[in-house]
Design a protein that fits this description.
single chain, mainly alpha, about 0% strand
Length: about 260
């Protein structure tokens, strides 16, 4: 881009591709636990998306920035990213699906800030958008992953943050059923989250069975974030006085 000659239209397409590439790098930074690198890639992606004046591409970057900012403890930045994403989505005339993604990120920010009323309001908006998503005719690729299972997962996360694991369990079960097996890494991540909440709720056997199901497919999944979740479960199960828990911990050690 800095040395070749090309038309303005070609330059715009290249700049758009650059924004998308930086956006993917940002997400892998989040998934790999390299938060500072992911955030730097997000800034590059956002600058490139702004230069081509693509509001929806900016929204796609901002929704990743929310995740990175939450992990980095940058509450103001995460909330500001949500606010700007809403503004850009409205400016672009985005449909319910894009607004659903933003509402879920809004709920994520509120949940991690301990603002449970704010999380409930964001989830209420998410449910409303979900009910209108079927009418969308032009959904960007980056928003196609979202569905009712994401709403269930976010609701469960709110209850976990409120230290109410038993209320979180049915929502996580619904999320695991809803996501199915098509998205292998996400499905495994949901199951490990469910296992951790089941363990906290005293359902040791079911928790270990969920983790066992994830370990059955372990060779086909590569995700540092998932690995961290499995290790968290391993530590939690390690202090439970149960033959099932001890067997599960041993299997995790052997497999992972």
């Amino acid at each position: 881009m800095s040395s070749a000659s090309y038309t303005f239209g070609v330059g715009r397409e290249l700049q758009t591709m650059l924004a998308e590439l930086h956006g993917h790098r940002a997400w892998y930074g989040y998934d790999g636990g390299r938060i500072a690198e992911g955030r730097a890639a997000c800034m590059e992606a956002l600058a490139a998306a702004q230069l081509v004046d693509n509001p929806l591409l900016q929204v796609s970057v901002l929704e990743t920035l929310v995740l990175l900012a939450v992990k980095a403890g940058r509450s103001w930045e995460a909330a500001s990213a949500v606010e700007n994403a809403y503004r850009l989505a409205t400016q672009a005339g985005a449909g319910a699906t894009v607004h659903l993604v933003i509402a879920l990120r809004d709920a994520n920010v509120a949940t991690h800030a301990g603002d449970l009323p704010g999380a409930r309001r964001a989830l209420s908006r998410a449910v409303s958008y979900q009910g209108r998503a079927d009418a969308d005719t032009d959904v960007p690729n980056w928003a196609k992953f979202v569905g009712p299972f994401e709403v269930d997962y976010a609701t469960a996360d709110m209850y976990v943050r409120a230290d109410q694991p038993k209320r979180a369990v049915p929502f996580l079960r619904a999320a695991v059923r809803g996501i199915g097996g098509g998205l292998a890494r996400n499905s495994a991540s949901y199951r490990v989250k469910l296992a951790g909440v089941l363990l906290a709720a005293g359902e040791v056997d079911e928790a270990c069975a969920e983790v066992g199901g994830v370990l059955d497919t372990w060779g086909g999944i590569a995700s540092p974030r998932l690995l961290c979740k499995v290790h968290d479960f391993q530590r939690a199960a390690g202090v439970v006085d149960s033959p099932t828990a001890r067997e599960c911990v041993a299997r995790i050690r052997e497999t992972v």
